[in-house]
Design goal:
Nitrilase/N-carbamoyl-D-aminoacid amidohydrolase; 6-stranded mixed sheet; alpha/beta; 20 strands; 7-stranded mixed sheet
Length: 542
Amino acid sequence: MTDNRLSISIAQINCSVGDLSANTASIIKAIRRAQESVEDIVIFPELALCGYPPEDLLLRKAFLKDCKSKLEEIKLKTKGITAIVGFPELAEDGSIYNSAALLSDGELAGIYRKVELPNYGVFDEKRYFKSGSNPLVFEAAGKRCAVSICEDVWIENSNLDLWVKEHNVDLVFNLSASPFYAGKANQRRGVMQKFAKRNNCFIVHSNLIGAQDELVFCGGSLVCNSKGDIVAAASQFSEEDLVVQIQGDVVSAEIVPPMDYLEEIYQALLIGTKDYVTKNGIKKVVLGLSGGIDSALVLAIAVDAFGSKNVIAVSMPSQYSSDGTKNDAKKMALQLGVKFYELPIIDIFKTTLNVLSEPLGGGQPGVEQENLQARIRGAMLMTLSNKHGWLLLTTGNKSEMAVGYCTLYGDMNGGFAVIKDVPKTLVFELSRYCNKRANKEIIPESIIDRPPSAELRPDQKDEDSLPPYEILDKILEDYVEKDMNPSEIVIDGVEHETIVNMVRLVDRAEFKRFQSPPGVKITPKAFGRDRRMPIHNSYKPS
């Protein structure tokens, strides 16, 4: 450190839960890069050593002891530099803390324990961690520095705010693993700006990137000055070192502008899918390609994530499939260069009905025949998955999942549901965005323009069973996202009975959603992760 210049490297890394060796190697590599470029301090995301969220791994004492051993390994690599590393700490009294280790010149200089433990939405930290109670303050290049972890800076008039004032802190380091949803990055930037301004100090915020199960972390690490101005910002959804030079109040660093709404959602779906597949050691994926917009969007994302040679698309037309959807499925697969199979299900469908003719009895065909087609397709895809080790990507969207317009053990089959949290209207927007970002037709316009249909009976349209998706998604936003009762939901031109009927469908479909595959969270209230309703539920909202 010279001339009161403080050089900081914000290591925005992609950690994998439980892979202590790989995470440790990533941390050590980032420390080495900072040493080689003569940085003074390198800061890592929250719980970078073990990955976030580790969940019930934290209940295993052996896991926590292994984390401590890896921290010792990292400590020895900090010659001539200070590193702030997030790790799970097992205290001598058996308490577990969400902690940050201050490692300096090969020594453990201090430990900070997270004070504000979130316990809402996707967070469950009070299940595992005990709250810390003491500040960690140190000096670097003439600046009084303090360490904080994620939620600590989100709470106004907190212990951290008091400590910053009490210790005349100039700069706060914030280690974070802040899960993504659309618009969260802007919200997080605002939180950091408000913290810096109300405490008249710098804040250096390091946020995790990558995905763990259904959660995505978008990075976007940043620095705010004491006026609350963003003076440095990293990219979203990519690993990088953001290097910041602070001398007095002058900051030298790059500011990467934030992504727009559709771009960040698309990138979240991309990294969420890619990390889920690759972190589980899977090489190839397969999906049913119907010629409809949902499977078309999933195919586009899969090709972007894994390359065309690692994606297999299967069309399984029935007697109800139109020439338009069959041709569009083939066209899209060919132009993206993926392996494509067309496997008609007509004979299997007829044979199954013949075998079941006696127990089915007579009468007009109903939903059982529609669902049978979906289940034949699901069984075929899972057979291919079992044979070749391909992960089956499920293609249902949030609107369908919400009202149960999907078939258990049929189109809900699969290992990962890419657009599970994407409303149907947003599926259309993202499909248009795919073509725009590629500056060419990735998803055929005929797919985007065609009225949605499951094609499980003659001339079927989704609007035979559901209101237009623009209306349905507004009902779902109010009921699911905002927790409004049917009587509070008012939509111009929509009868109250329609709203009540859709709400009933949502409530009745809980058992289906409980059995659905995991999928990327992109809204504030994803099914399963954020919205946790009982399967049996006799309460009827009015």
